[in-house]
């Protein structure tokens, strides 16, 4: 369990919002959102709103039956009694999906770098369930012993990491021979033309109000197509990942339909009050629209 600091939940939330306000001001002045400032921003967004992903992406229509967490777990596939680690667990959605599969004879651990997310996940553990959440970094999972898991999952985490080499080495270390690693990533380079135009208008809002946010690896191909990412899987000892591309459909008739999806995302979180007003008006002008969000599931294993 995490140790509770002296500060209250309200104070922690205010601290996260203060951090976001400071970063927004810098990025609005053109400071590039890269390196440590990007890491601080991502962590502050999750700390301020740990349930954002579950309460937005999980509500979308699943094309061809895809599900953000259940597909991730079923594609492993896991069975009763196995041990699973969820890296970048957030509020625990994927970890709980895994726990449903491995059952009471199995074990699921979740690790996230944001203490507020870990607290949110801990608060949802059913009494007596073999689930454990801890604060930790994907690059240093030293809490766990070598070859101690049958499977590792990572839901929408890898996109946040510039250099995958060390996290993948840690995952490989923790997997028993033959153990599986399954991850989901965004695949925005697969946007259909109409959606690319739609997202271009949203990014124009970012450019007008937070120009520094458009810095960084904007041209990075979807994982694992980027050569450095593909090499990282190979260097960690993994087999070439299998890929399953799916789409999540967001049917948006009014700006009120689109607002939760965008305002609770990283794109919305980087905008100050004026930027949020600009985003609202842009979304209103683009309605109605059905946005198909491309998600890629990756599956590989440690040989043995």
Number of DSSP-assigned strands: 8
From the N-terminal CA to the C-terminal CA, the straight-line distance is 33 Å
Question: Which structural class best describes the helix and strand composition?
Answer: alpha/beta
Going by CATH, what is the homologous superfamily of the largest domain? Vaccinia Virus protein VP39
Taking all Cα atoms into account, the compactness measure Rg is 19 Å
Shape: globular
Estimate the helix proportion, in percent.
Answer: 40-55%
CATH topology of the largest domain: Rossmann fold
CATH architectural label of the largest domain: 3-Layer(aba) Sandwich
Q: Please tell me the total number of domains.
A: 2
Largest sheet: 8 strands, mixed
Q: Would you identify the regions where 5 or more consecutive residues have pLDDT less than 50?
A: 1-5
Write down the secondary-structure element order.
HHHEHEHEHEEHEHHEHHHE
Instruction: Please report the first level of CATH classification, the CATH class of the largest domain.
Output: Alpha Beta
Strand order of the largest sheet: 1-7-8-6-5-2-3-4
Task: Determine the strand fraction and express it as a percent band.
Answer: 15-25%
- Number of helices, counting only DSSP H or I runs of 4 residues or more: 12
The chain-level mean pLDDT equals 93
TL;DR?
This protein is α/β, with parallel strands linked by helices and 304 residues long. It has helices spanning 9-28, 35-48, 52-56, 70-74, 93-102, 115-122, 165-174, 193-209, 227-235, 255-263, 266-269, 273-286, and strands spanning 61-62, 83-87, 107-112, 131-135, 149-155, 175-186, 242-252, 289-301. It is built from twelve helices and eight strands.
């Amino acid at each position: 369990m995490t140790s509770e600091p002296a500060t209250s939940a309200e104070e922690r939330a205010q601290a996260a919002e203060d951090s976001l306000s400071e970063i927004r001001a810098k990025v609005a002045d053109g400071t590039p959102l890269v390196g440590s400032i990007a890491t601080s921003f991502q962590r502050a967004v999750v700390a301020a709103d740990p349930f954002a992903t579950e309460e937005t992406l999980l509500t979308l229509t699943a094309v061809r039956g895809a599900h953000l967490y259940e597909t991730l777990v079923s594609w492993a596939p896991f069975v009763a009694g196995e041990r699973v680690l969820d890296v970048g667990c957030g509020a625990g959605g994927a970890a709980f999906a895994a726990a449903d599969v491995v059952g009471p004879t199995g074990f699921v651990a979740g690790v996230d770098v944001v203490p507020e997310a870990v607290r949110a996940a801990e608060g949802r553990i059913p009494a007596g369930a073999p689930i454990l959440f801890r604060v930790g970094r994907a690059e240093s999972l030293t809490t766990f012993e070598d070859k101690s898991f049958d499977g590792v999952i990572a839901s929408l985490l890898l996109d946040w990491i510039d250099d995958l080499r060390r996290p993948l080495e840690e995952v490989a270390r923790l997997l028993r021979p033959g153990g599986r690693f399954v991850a989901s990533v965004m695949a925005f380079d697969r946007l259909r033309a109409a959606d690319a135009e739609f997202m271009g208008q949203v990014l124009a809002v970012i450019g007008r109000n937070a120009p520094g946010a458009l810095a960084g690896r904007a041209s990075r191909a979807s994982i694992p197509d980027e050569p450095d990412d593909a090499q990282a899987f190979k260097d960690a000892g993994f087999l070439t990942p299998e890929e399953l591309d799916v789409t999540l459909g967001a049917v948006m008739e009014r700006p009120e339909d689109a607002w939760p999806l965008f305002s609770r995302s990283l794109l919305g979180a980087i905008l100050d009050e004026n930027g949020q007003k600009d985003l609202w008006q842009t979304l209103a002008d683009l309605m109605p629209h059905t946005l198909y969000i491309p998600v890629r599931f990756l599956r590989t294993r440690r040989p043995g």
